[in-house]
Write a structure and sequence with these properties.
The chain starts with a helix and ends in a 12-residue tail after the last strand. The model has no long low-confidence stretch (mean pLDDT 88). By secondary structure, the chain is an alpha/beta fold.
Amino acid sequence: METRLDRIEKAIEDLLLGISELKESQMRTDAQIMELKDSQKKTDAQMRRTDAKLDRIGRQLADLGLVQGEVAEELFYRNLPALFRKRKVKFREVRRNVKKKGAGEYDIVAVDGGRVLVVEVKNKLNKRMVDQFIEKRLPRFKELFPEYSRLRLEGGIGALVVRDDVGRYAEKAGLYVLTQTDEGGATLLNRDDFKPRAFS
């Protein structure tokens, strides 16, 4: 027959055994936490290296975009007089990167008698760019450059890549559409009977 003292001793033994198991479990948990901390430090270091690589790649892509933009501007700037000569337009002045400090910049501005042609240059053209040019950029031109206020304002948009539907969209909006040829030259996509819109 088990005495009360036996039961107490058994309970104490069970309690001590439980405490021992709890200590062992806590030690295993502590070891796992340490492993997790070490693993987290390695992961954090790898993430920092990855972030640095992504930053470098982003800067390189931005530089590439700038270079492509400059190539596109140069292509259309150099070829503008010849492209429009075929349409019996002779520009007496063609300027590039016409800017009003802190207010705005226009890629190409060309003057022919009573008209001024403002050309926006992109790498790849989309409809949103056409809309922004017509709705926001062109309306500000004469405000920023009042020396052209007496001239009829026409717009053009040039891009190295112009899908057919986007080119037609820009043409229907009244813009001249410039792009590159298969041989790397420049061309106007507008139809022969195209009539440019007067934007002011």
